[in-house]
Amino acid sequence: MNFPSKSIYKRVLLKLSGEVLGGEKGTGIDFKEVRRICEEIKEVHNMEVEIGIVVGGGNIFRGAENEEGEIDRVTGDYMGMLGTVINSLAIQSVLENMGVQTRVLSAIEMKALAEPYIRRRAIRHMEKGRIVVFAGGTGSPYFSTDTASSLRAVETNAEVILKGTKVDGVFDADPFKVKSAKMFPYITYMEALQRNLKIMDSTAFSMCMDNKIPIIVFNITVPGNLLKIMRGEKIGTIVK
Ligand code: UDP
């Protein structure tokens, strides 16, 4: 790929949902897709951008989706958070195999395999050019990794949240169901709330709004999109 090497951002928070890591099926880990995404992340890193990644876990387990009721919600949520740790280790391995230095910082202490999440340490790692992978969500049940993304973005002074999804941006209707659905190039936080658009859950969304962190929702399954955003091209929907 032949992109200019300059990035308009210095520090970003990339949110990778579990579904994206699960590739076409959306479940398990599709290493071919993970490698492709990591190659793009490496190119962004080469632009001297400081990168934090919050990893989802929906490809492994979601606490609220335990329909048989065998597992209580809190336990289910911890299982979901452990899923994010599995995904984080996969991303770390793939990036490190490409020669990129990374650290996994977990909100749930797991000393044998990840550092505990400590805000100042996370920032220090990023300043030293290491990609920080935030595992374990917020560490608390009843939250989501979207909330973890807004929290970590605010805590680490990221300029923007890049929400990598399987759709091109934010639409006025479900693009998989409504053919005529229109994508917004820009939308304000207020308009998104008024239109009841589900960009993130409400906790995550209000944290971004209160702290004025823009969110770019974009299709990360399209090769090159992440790099285009970094060099200031208009990709996806900007919420601000
Ligand atoms: N989770 C949680 N607290 C958090 C983050 C995640 O309890 O701070 C649990 C929750 O059960 C959630 C699951 O982990 O459903 C996986 O996270 P999420 O659904 O946000 O992953 P994604 O949709 O991004 O793949």
Describe the structure.
Helix 2 packs across helix 3 and helix 5 packs parallel to helix 7. This protein has eight helices and eleven strands. Helix content is 36%, strand content 18%. The model has no long low-confidence stretch (mean pLDDT 95). A nine-stranded mixed sheet has the order 4-3-5-2-1-6-10-11-9, with helices on both faces. It binds uridine-5'-diphosphate.
Radius of gyration: 17 Å
Unreliable residue runs: none
Q: Assembly state here?
A: single chain
Q: Globular, elongated, flat, extended or rod-shaped: what is the shape?
A: globular
- Biggest β-sheet: strands ordered side by side in the sheet: 4-3-5-2-1-6-10-11-9
Secondary-structure element string? EHHEHEEHEHEEEEHHEHE
The major β-sheet equals: 9 strands, mixed
The bound ligands are:
uridine-5'-diphosphate
Give the fraction of residues assigned to helices: 25-40%
Average pLDDT works out at 95
